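Re-run requested by the PI after the first attempt was lost when the workstation crashed. Everything re-entered from the original request form. Ligand of interest: carboxymethyl coenzyme *A.
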Amino acid sequence: MAQERAKLDLNGTVVELPILDGVEGEKAIDISELRAKTSYITLDHGYANTGSCLSGVTFIDGEKGILRYRGIPIEELAVHSTFVETSYLLIHGKLPTQAERDEFSRALTKHAPLHEDVKHIFDGIPDETHPMAILSAMVSILSGFHPASLDPRQDEAQINENASQLLSKVRTIAAYIYKKSIGEPFIPPDDHLSYCANFLHMMFSKPKKDYPVDEDVVRALNLLLILHADHEQNCSTATVRLVGSSRTNLFASVAAGICALWGPWHGGANQEVMEMLERIHKSGKGVQEHIRVATDPKSPVRLSGFGHRVYKTYDPRAKVIKEACHRLVEKFGVHDPLLEIALKLEAAALKHEFFISRKLYPNVDFYSGIIYKLIGIPTNMFTVMFAIGRLPGWIAHWKEMRETKPPRIGRPRQIYIGNRKADYVDMKDRK
Ligand code: CMC
């Protein structure tokens, strides 16, 4: 069958461009030869319409609200899988056999402790430092403790070793960031605990007083991390791929992704949502006032946890998290006024013409903070939780990017709109 082609008419000169098909029927016009053939480039602010790669990791249909990792719907993974198994799926491209799963878990257990020198680094960090700043710095520094990661010719086995180190150590670093912030001693990892239980132990145990790990809480944490594990070419993942494309090591590439995630329009939205709900609660003004400000074209305020570049329907992750939220609130028998405000805010927004016409729905960050809060995780650590969850996705994309043939550095172009050629003016003649 002849390959479909697009025709571009540039002032009478017709250029033919190949069309590529994804396995789910997505179509792309391949413009990689356009500049060579015509001297034109394409322009796409925020890359809203630009595919940067071919990828086999995650599929999203934003109109239908579908999200699948390596073909498996997240709703199935949420019920049947664990974060460790889902990480293996994303990084290695398939569900592990029992033996593969055991070996992966052993590697994570082995790498959980931090080197004594990493712990000393915490001493010099100012108390006010945001956890995301510490996380990105610490992850970048890990490359110094694992220098084999710096060799751009490293083999698959070495990359997998670094991936396990990263997945395991980030969990310990995150718990230690929290311990440092509250002035408590670090709690070492416990080899007998599962990935999530071990994290909760390092976060909440105290010397000689073990935190009683609750299986429902472990389950809820697994669920949240699974739902955050990958989301194809989002801002942070695209950053990891771009940084890695210059043959930067895995640790530094992921450190860059952590910085990209931090922003309030990306992973930082979960912290923003909680702060927004608390502000509404304290003000006593009700949700309508916030809706009014968030829909005012003159106001920079947005409804945090709403809207998405890709989803033009309810975010499938938000759906699962909302249900889990209700289950956990019931289990703990707590009355959470912030959950009530969130439910009212969602209902008010979904009825409002502003949100309806723009297809803005709750996203993954709208309800996740309420679960984190119930678990006892402080608000300024929410985005760190997102980062732990997103690690397998970043690693899978970094690996996929490295395997792309031919290897190419990521390097967008631009349309220059600055000064035309100008002369250098001596200081005395400048105005
Ligand atoms: N509240 C109010 N207005 C909004 C919102 C919102 N949450 N989101 C989008 N809009 C408006 C925006 O002002 C624009 O209006 P107009 O057409 O009048 O100019 C229109 O909707 C389209 O917005 P956009 O900025 O062009 O859309 P985008 O695809 O570039 O942005 C987004 C996506 C996620 C950055 C944006 O929806 C947003 O800022 N949401 C709030 C922050 C948030 O919850 N982020 C988490 C995203 S999910 C987790 C993750 O993967 O990062």
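Saved to the shared folder this time. Strands lie at 5-10, 13-21, 27-29, 58-61, 66-69, 72-73.
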